Each structure stands twice: as structure tokens, then as C-alpha cells.
Amino acid sequence: MPLITGAGRTGMMGAVADAAISAGGETIGVIPRFMVERGWNHQGMRTLHVVETMHLRKAMMAELSSAAIALPGGIGTFEELCEIITWRQLGLYGGNVVILNTNGYYDSFLAMIAQAISNNFMHDDHMGLFTVAATPAEAVAAALSAQETKTFSPKF
Asked: Is there a contact between 126 and 117 (Cβ–Cβ < 8 Å)?
């Protein structure tokens, strides 16, 4: 199974791509043209798709992937995580969504979701839209687990 990534060369994205390449894995990157023009793209991707916008980047990554794992990151990661969870809720994305909560990094995010549930902005079954993993090994296992274990029946 290939690694689908945003094709960045630095940070967690670059480190994961470097590890996959070092292990002989297949890497597929999706990156907007402006990032390539700025030299932000990883040079080692086996396949690199250059798209025009960030929106097209996320859509192509979702289309190519069978699961999504959110590593600790910044505002872009938060935005992408919320979008893929929303797409899952709406039935637009069928893959597993996994939050890698290394050292409790996402505890505040998870508390915010719990707050939304307690204030009736979300249903408690929305917690079934994603899995939380404490270690990279758990995250990969959750991402690769059978999809039927993550069914979601929204309440309307």
C-alpha cells in the first residue's frame, strides 16, 4: 500500500516520506504548484502530482487514499483533519480516519469535540468517525483495519 502524502520536504510530512523511501515503500505526493515553485516539495517522491490549489490537493489525497492518519502538526493539519472527518460524516470519504495522539498532543482537540457533544452541537456517535491511537504502530493498525469496523449511522 503506498504512502499518500502532501509532498512536503520538511517537518513530520518530510520525515514520514523519508522513512517510507528508506524502507523501499511507494510514495505518492500531491502538492500545489505554488509550493513547488517555492521549493517546498520533497524530491524523493516516486510519483508527484502537481495541482493548482490546496482544495484540489486535499481532494486528490482523499481520492487516492484508503485511510488518513493525522500526525501532530499545526493549523494546516487541524484544518485537514476536521475536513476529512466532515467528509467521513457526510459519506464523502470511506476510509478510516486516525488521530495519532502522541504524548497527548490532541487531548485539547478531543476535549473540544467532547464539549461540542455535551453542548449538543454534535452527537456522541460522531466520535465513531475516527479512531485515536497513542503510538505510530497503533495508528497504522487502525488505518489498515477493516472498514466495516468503523461504520457510522448519523442521527438527523
From this structure: yes
- CA dist 153 and 156 (Å) reads 10
Per-residue pLDDT for the chain (156 aa), expressed as one digit of tens each? 899 999 999 999 999 999 999 999 999 999 999 999 999 999 999 999 999 999 999 999 999 999 999 999 999 999 999 999 999 999 999 999 999 999 999 999 999 999 999 999 999 999 999 999 999 999 999 999 976 434 444 443
C-alpha dihedral sign at 128, 64, 15, 8: negative
Burial class (CB in 10 A: 0-12, 13-18, 19+), 56: middle
Helix pair angle (75-89, 54-64), 10° resolution: 50
pTM for this one?
0.90
Distance in angstroms (rounded) separating the CA atoms of residues 50 and 41: 10
